[in-house]
Specification:
Largest interface: A-B, 66 and 59 residues
Shape of chain A: globular
Number of strands of chain A: 31
Number of domains of chain A: 3
Order of helices and strands of chain B: EEHEEEHHHH
Low-confidence stretches of chain B: none
Radius of gyration of chain A: 28 Å
Number of strands of chain B: 5
Helix content of chain B: 25-40%
Strand order of the largest sheet of chain B: 2-1-5-3-4
Radius of gyration of chain B: 15 Å
CATH superfamily of the largest domain in chain B: Beta-grasp domain
Oligomer: heterodimer
CATH topology of the largest domain in chain B: Ubiquitin-like (UB roll)
CATH architecture of the largest domain in chain A: 2-Layer Sandwich
Structural class of chain A: alpha+beta
Number of helices of chain A: 21
CATH class of the largest domain in chain A: Alpha Beta
Chain lengths: 720, 150
């Protein structure tokens, strides 16, 4: 067998350390991130890590905390630093930041984290990275001013250089790095000292993604591509019931199979270690395990969903209040008219293209370890691997890799920890790869849900009262997107009623928004129909949509020519969309094959207020990606469980959208605003279900109430 | 031993004849641009050329490659200069990028036999290759660009 280490792997994180020149550290305080000098670090107790380093040859190395799963933040985050420091982008080298949340993390909900989730990377890092870049620029100017003996206020910068307009002299950042000093403490930066938007050279412009060239020639290294000397291959078979554990298996038989090195008992499964991955897979297929199934042994997802209705109706159910505004009961008592509707949704699987995997190597003395993984949360991976090996977290080095899709699945470090356990057991470097079948069977799903919505209207038709109850398993996963801050309904009561099945659940591209926004926007559409009003006008007049929402509504209405007649076999559907501070409005145009129950989406329009857009091209691509991810889940994707086990096993029975299914056109437009960037990676997804169901109603007079809209359900709805 | 031509080089590997070509290419030879997605011929991430035809390397026993010519994404061009690779970069097609080797190899098969495919022909040819990030529109546009400019 040929084994080698990829050169990229060895040289990773070598660039910053080896450049020489000026180093800027970064620390995080209660007031956010700030750069500081090495000298300052030496007298303080804080550890210093390089964040920005300028070499005498003009190279600028910037760490990126933007774990790259296709969304582009690996490029956009260092670009924000480069913008404010006025770096020459062609001289910027980007490296992935070490997995140290104290240094490279952000603060969100009072927690320090590096997890790139919820489409919030740019949103959470934007302000801090601008200030950091501005500090570097100030230091460059100060050094040039001292050298030239002039007032720093008379100097300005061009990309990669300080210039003196009075004399025409210029000093490149690399030249300054050769003689300059980083003062201690670093200069502070007032908000007014940040570059004006009109002066931006990178933000909002067409800067190319750094990962593209490596992704067209096979050179991008994903976790699954890492190869180490002496590395062996592992694959696992987990308990088919998520609460299960292995009792015994045909160990002697398995160990006699070609290439098999060992079997490893996991708390929830069995792992095979072999000389090659095909040998490991063959042994996995031959495993005969006696399982203890645990409490989820008889779980049936359809029966459970049916039982959610009873939980909703149970006065003793465990209730979590999510929103209480005004006096909802009084609004209903005084109502001239009330509405009530129910919606359901099934489990969803991430189906990221790269099956879950990790590579772990433990040092010969057992005191430290390395892990290679494409991770949305390298800090979580570090903690999990350290725990599995009984090491302190700072003894674990995480080598961040590209991710073949994340979508919320890759933020736990669970399979990296599993790989660490196996590595420790066999005492040599291990690459663990889950088969696609394992990835689904042992998946962590978007929870299924039952929802009941009620609304009260006063005599003028205004919506004055709002009740929304979501029932299911998954805690917070159930209620993202359930609040309606974009509508001015005065009396609201929003709640979750929980249950626990023992089925593995996880964040999933906008997770609760998928079914909550579907329910909310279908329900609002029903009221608009009952009022015989245009759905957009209804939202503005009767739901008191906010000015921000109205701008999105008006923009998308213009984009799709909302009032223009459509062919008789086509219809439009409208829905609001919302996620991580961003707001938008989407419209779909559909037709229907009534014999086959197949919905075809022809055109999609979405207007998004996402604040300032840092990288417009990738941002638009990301929204289009969200649209198709949403469409795929709404039209095709469904996980079901019987006897506690997942019934789907690969892409033949968990069908993803293919090229022939995509809409002919997708149009994305950003509402031009001057506010802080907000999330864009998941704003393309939440409106799809509601918009399709509302278009379906316009076409058929029937309403789809259960996600996904499979052909069987469409046909049943048409017959009902 | 199984011998074949891989990206214009003669290679010999010691592998069970039934071993899928995918794992021989990735793990024994060390070219990791060809990806494992489903292991069942359902997604196209593992697409390579075998005697000029796009095949699913996860479903192709290495024995089928004996004496044949195999080309992977690493061998499509020495310097990313294939018209499809240039178009892929120009239009920034990849997002996560994991499926893109397979997409490009599948598209290269099409352009090798049909220099000016229609959009319908492109969709029909590419329909077996899944992209979970949903870059389908850009893939179509890039194939059309490569077809025009190649």
């Amino acid at each position: 067998m040929t084994i080698h280490i990829d050169k990229d792997m060895i040289s990773r994180r070598g660039v910053l350390a080896g450049l020489g020149g000026l180093t800027f550290g970064l620390a995080l305080g209660a007031d956010g991130a700030r750069l500081f000098s090495v000298a300052e670090a030496a007298i303080g107790a804080k550890a210093i890590n390089a964040w920005v380093r300028i070499a005498p040859n003009g190279t600028v190395a910037i760490y990126s905390a933007g774990a790259e799963m296709g969304q582009g933040s690996m490029t956009s985050l260092p670009m924000i630093v480069a913008e404010e420091m006025d770096a020459d982008w062609s001289k910027v080298v980007v490296e992935m930041a070490p997995a140290d949340r104290a240094i490279y993390g952000y603060t969100f909900n009072n927690e320090r984290n590096m997890a790139i989730v919820g489409s919030r990377a740019v949103m959470l890092y934007f302000n801090d990275l601008r200030v950091a870049g501005a500090q570097v620029r100030k230091v460059m100017i100060a050094n040039a001013a001292e050298k030239w003996g002039v007032d720093a206020a008379t100097l300005r910068t061009e990309p990669g250089a300080v210039v003196n307009p009075a004399t025409g002299e210029r000093l490149g950042y690399g030249e300054i790095a050769a003689f300059g000093k980083v003062p201690s403490p670093l200069p502070t930066v007032a908000p007014s000292e940040l570059k004006a938007r009109k002066d931006w050279r990178l933000i909002g412009k067409g800067v190319a993604r750094r990962d593209t060239p490596l992704k067209v020639n096979g050179q991008a290294i994903y976790g699954i591509d890492v190869r180490l000397p002496g590395m062996v291959y592992a694959t696992s078979l987990h308990a088919p019931v998520h609460t299960g554990k292995p009792l015994s298996w045909n160990d002697d038989e398995i160990k006699k199979m070609p290439g098999v090195i060992d079997t490893v008992r996991l708390p929830n499964g069995v792992s095979i270690v072999a000389q090659s991955f095909p040998q490991a897979m063959a042994a996995r297929a031959a495993l005969k395990v006696s399982w203890e199934h645990g409490p989820a042994a008889n779980f049936d997802s359809e029966a459970a969903l049916a039982a959610y209705v009873k939980i909703h109706d149970d006065p003793n159910a465990q209730i979590t209040n999510l929103e209480k505004k005004g006096d909802t009961d009084a609004a209903f008592r005084a109502a001239a008219r009330t509405f009530k509707a129910e919606f359901r949704s099934d489990y969803g699987y991430h189906a990221q293209m790269e099956p879950l995997n990790a590579v772990v190597r433990i040092a010969a003395d057992g005191r430290s370890a390395e892990v290679w993984e494409g991770s949305q949360a390298p800090d979580a991976t570090r903690d999990q691997v350290a725990r599995a090996l009984g090491l302190a977290a700072d003894k674990v080095t995480v080598h961040q890799c590209y991710m073949g899709g994340g979508f919320g699945r890759r933020s736990l470090g669970d399979y990296a920890a599993e790989c660490a356990t196996i590595t420790k057991a066999v005492n040599r470097p291990v690459k663990l790869v889950w088969t696609r079948e394992e990835d689904i069977a042992h998946g962590m799903f978007r929870p299924q849900s039952f929802q009941c919505l009620e609304a009260a209207q006063d005599a003028s038709g205004k919506v004055t009262g709002w009740r929304h109850c979501v029932v299911g398993d998954g805690g917070v996963l159930l209620h993202t997107g359930i609040r309606i801050p974009y509508y001015g309904v005065p009396n609201q009561s929003i709640e979750r009623r929980g249950v626990s099945h023992g089925i593995r659940l996880k964040h999933w591209r906008a997770v609760g928004h998928v079914f909550n926004v579907f329910a909310i926007e279908s329900f609002v559409d029903e009221m608009a129909v009952a009022a015989n009003m245009d759905p957009i006008a209804f939202r503005i007049e009767r739901m008191a949509a906010t000015p921000k929402a109205r701008r999105c509504f008006e923009t998308v209405a213009r984009m799709c020519d909302w009032n223009a007649p459509r062919p008789p076999d086509r219809a439009l559907g409208f829905s609001i969309t919302e996620r991580s501070g961003s707001l938008g409005a989407g419209v779909v145009e559909i037709s229907l094959n009534r014999e086959r129950g197949k919905i075809k989406v022809h055109r999609v329009w979405v207007a998004v207020d996402g604040g300032i857009v840092v990288t417009p091209g990738p941002a638009k691509a990301n929204i289009e990606s969200g649209i198709l991810y949403g469409l795929s889940s709404v039209l095709h994707e469904r996980v079901t469980l019987k006897d506690g086990s997942v019934q789907q096993s690969n892409f033949h029975d968990y069908e993803l959208m293919r090229m022939s299914d995509v809409p002919e056109e997708m149009h994305v437009e950003f509402v031009d605003v001057d506010t802080r960037p907000t999330g864009l990676g998941e704003i393309g997804n939440p409106f799809i279900a509601g918009a399709i169901s509302n278009a379906f109603y316009r076409l058929t007079g029937k309403r789809l109430r259960h996600l996904p809209f499979t052909p069987e359900r469409v046909l049943a709805t048409l017959k009902a | 031993m199984v011998s074949f031509s891989l990206n214009d080089k003669r290679v010999s590997v010691d592998a069970d004849p039934s071993t899928p070509l995918l794992w021989v290419i990735r793990d024994q030879i060390g070219l990791t641009g060809t990806k494992y997605g489903c292991g069942a011929g359902l997604c196209g991430a593992c697409t390579v050329h075998l005697n000029g035809r796009a095949v699913r390397s996860c479903q192709t026993p290495v024995a089928d490659a004996a004496g044949a010519t195999v080309v992977t994404i690493e061998g499509l061009s020495p310097d990313s200069s294939h018209p499809l690779q240039k178009a892929w970069v120009a239009l920034e097609v990849p997002q996560c990028g994991y499926c893109q080797s397979g997409q490009i190899m599948k598209a290269a098969e099409l352009l090798a036999t049909n220099k000016r495919p229609t959009r319908a022909q492109i969709v029909e040819h590419m329909d077996g290759n899944i992209c979970r990030c949903g870059t389908y529109h850009k893939i179509i546009a890039a194939i059309e660009m490569a077809s025009r400019e190649g």
